[in-house]
Amino acid sequence: MYAYDHYDQTFVEQRAAEFREQIDRRLSGALSEDEFKPLRLQNGLYLQLHAYMLRVAIPYGVLNSKQLRMLGNLADRYDKGYGHFTTRQNIQYNWTKLSDVADMIDALASVQMHAIQTSGNCIRNVTTDAYAGVAGDEWLDPRPSAELLRQWSSLHPEFAFLPRKFKIAVLGAAQDRAAMKFHDIGLWAKLDAGGQPTYDIWVGGGQGRTPRVARLYQEAVPLADLLPTLDAMLRVYNLAGRRDNKYKARIKILIDEMGIEAYREAVDEELARIDRSVFATAVTEYQRIAAQFETAQRPALQGQAIAQESPAFHAWLQQNGMAHKIDGYAAVSISLKTKGAIPGDASGAQMRAVADLAERYSAGEIRVSHRQNLVLPWVKLNDLGALYAALVEQDLAEANIGLASDIIACPGLDYCALATARSIPVAQALSARLREREQRDGPIDLSLNISGCINACGHHHAANIGILGLNRTESETYQISLGGRADDKAKVGEILGPGFSQEQVPDVIETLLDTWQAHRRDNEDFSQTFERVGKQPFKEAVYA
Amino acid sequence: MPNASSNVAALDLGWLLQSSGAFSHAAVPTLDLLVEPEAADTLGLNNLLALKGVGLVFKSPHDGRSFSLARQLRNAGFSGQLVGLGRLMPDQARHAFQSGLDALWLEDQLVQRHGADAWQNALNVVVADLYSQQRLPLGLTERLALPDIWQRRQNAAAKTLPPKHCL
After folding, report:
1. A284: in domain
2. Residue B150 lies in a domain
3. What is the pLDDT, as a whole number, of residue A540?
4. Residue B7: what pLDDT?
């Protein structure tokens, strides 16, 4: 893992002190709410329906046990005993008081954490694959690139007041497990013939009311050119992105309107003006960071074996385990989607329990996944049985990673000031129904995501089955879309037809699953069946 | 003063915050042109390069275009005075100077609104170090003028290496 040195530590402490002073000026009235808004957002502080919400960064989803324990303690002390893990590897506290926030930020800084740029119209927390460094299909660990970008973008003077938020994801494996193509910029890191990092740059992805899959901007950009290229891409966006309509302000709209070629020309003009010598330190910095991650990798182990345990253990390992790139280990996901649970929520006690388990069984390391679950990346094969038993005791052994009941959902109208419908109760009802079905009939291998409004924080566009909550004539209605996916073949789902009431949704979803099963050939996944048969059979089934 | 704006013409006395941290009640500096962000494209970057003083207008505390305009001008070789004017907050002073502006000219009302102390302290309460930063204005206050973190890290690492003959 990356560990702060005194420069990093001073940086977060100075930022904590700066934000404390900004809060004081807001409380004294020296800053109006309009002025305070961009400042608080740049430090992860939203004003929600009932209280302030603080979003804390978990850069590229990596936590150590001390940090997770601190997150659990903050949940108990400053929230109502819970934290909510998000799709972009953050954690949110939904019940914070403005007067407590500065103390929370200080506490985070004491464990090398922060809330810098987890919201606002700036470069957000950089995300990546939750299995980075351990995935069998990985050719380059994306975390050093993500950490380099974290440092470069933190408090960037020029890009703190962009037209809209700006999200970057980095991958280094064959499979996309971070929804990279739904980011403003996606970087697909690879190795060139000489073993040096290069990046395929994708641009203009995003969800919201105008969902777009990112377009390929440039292939094989060498590490030395990465920051100058991003600098130029961001500058063109900052200057030319629309500011007259927040719904048309993301870079995807700029690229729609300019065209990718004109955008590329503008960026090239910018690049020609850039003094690249100011970025000359980046390659050495990357190497320094990468060395830390390499040192933390563990050697292969001999003599490790998975013991014969109960059928439930093997079912759990089959579903929640992942083949490791290093012999002798497994990476194991901990589902935060137990039957009827709020997706992504964990109690303070659960966080502390997972921190203890990480110390005992995973070299003290935990990851947060795009699908709002936790991962223990370094479990010795010999320890799997004991880990499973401990997870069962904590009610954290649900074997449903990647299944229909592993639902992504935003907080919706229960918390969010932007939401138009509730998503939590829909997710809870569906998770209970789908988990029963999975336990009865076997795994349902598809993605199901729920958003409480068109802003699509629950990634409904990118799911095999997407559910969008809307408010029509004073009552909530839920629109279904089908065929979306967030992997390397990313696609926006197609709207099925008129929406359904909250009570109808579980039956409708079961009908869709029945229809898939009826039309499915061999081992087709949902996308394959949907692409082959189209939406008509699904439409006929649910609107019959 | 020629200007590309219709609403920032009648400037007289106000407050000048310079990149050095100096803060004084002063007339607006002599500028050849005021540039609103929308007008920058029409004016053309190359037409600005020979000017001695350019004012960059900030239209709202949410609008960061003039930070990028400043950086773009500096990258293009503009060596005159860059002065920011308009709706800024004290918290944005560091953004302005780290993006290449030399000074901010602030209307009395804006200074009163935040309090003169907030502007006076604007460069003392912000995060001082950036990981990577581009060319800074000459005479920038010492606190912000240190080499960036990556440079200092690498300088420190170089010092801790044994002399070459020992390798």
Report:
1. yes
2. no
3. 97
4. 41
Task: Indicate whether A8 and A107 sit together in one domain.
Answer: yes
Tell me if chain B has a CB within 8 Å of the CB of A260: no
Our count of domains for chain A comes to 4
**Cβ-based contacts under 8 A for chains A and B:** 119
Q: Give the nearest chain B residue to A163 (CA atoms).
A: B63
Gap between the Cα atoms of A42 and A119, Å rounded: 6
Give the Cα separation of A53 and A55 in Å (integer).
6
**CB-based contact B67:B40 (threshold 8 Å):** no
Q: Which domain holds residue A532?
A: 408-542
Taking the C-alpha atoms of residue B74 and residue B94, their distance in angstroms, rounded to an integer, is 16
pLDDT at A395: 94
Classify residue A301: in a domain, yes or no. Answer: no
Q: B10 pLDDT exceeds 50?
A: no
**Bridging pattern class, strands B53-58 and B33-35:** parallel
Residue B148, min C-alpha distance to chain A (Å): 10
Numbered residues of chain B with Cβ closer than 8 Å to any chain A Cβ: 37, 40, 61-65, 67-69, 71-72, 75-76, 89, 91-92, 94-96, 98-99, 114-115, 118, 125-135, 148-154, 157
Distance of CA A131 to the CA centre of its chain: 13
Specify if A191 maps to a domain.
yes
Q: What does DSSP assign to residue A36?
A: H
Nearest Cα of chain A lies from the Cα of B78 at a distance, in angstroms, of: 11
pLDDT of residue B8: 44
Q: What is the predicted ipTM?
A: 0.94
Judged by a CB distance cut-off of 8 A, whether residue A145 touches chain B is: no
What value, to the nearest 5°, has the Cα angle with vertex A62 and ends A59 and A63?
A: 110
Pairing mode, if any, of strands A197-203 and A215-222? antiparallel
Q: Do A14 and B128 touch (CB under 8 A)?
A: yes
- The pLDDT tens digits of the residues spanning A238-273 come to 999 999 999 999 999 999 999 999 999 999 999 999
Tokens of B133: 């930063």
From A148-157, A280-289, A348-357, A468-477, the region with the lowest mean pLDDT: A468-477
Residue A34 touches partner B, C-beta closer than 8 Å: yes
Q: How confident is the model at residue A205 (pLDDT cuts 50, 70, 90)?
A: very high
Average pLDDT estimate for A420-444 = 95
pLDDT digits (tens, 9 = 90+) for A76-126: 999 999 999 999 999 999 999 999 999 999 999 999 999 999 999 999 999
* Cβ–Cβ gap A31/B114 under 8 Å: yes
DSSP helix/strand/coil, B11:
coil
For chain B, say whether A31 makes contact (Cβ under 8 Å).
Answer: yes
Q: Does A440 touch chain B (CB under 8 A)?
A: no
Domain carrying residue B81: 13-127
A510-520: pLDDT as tens digits: 999 999 999 99
Contact check, Cβ <8 Å, A285/B135: no
Interface touch A34/B76, C-beta < 8 Å = no
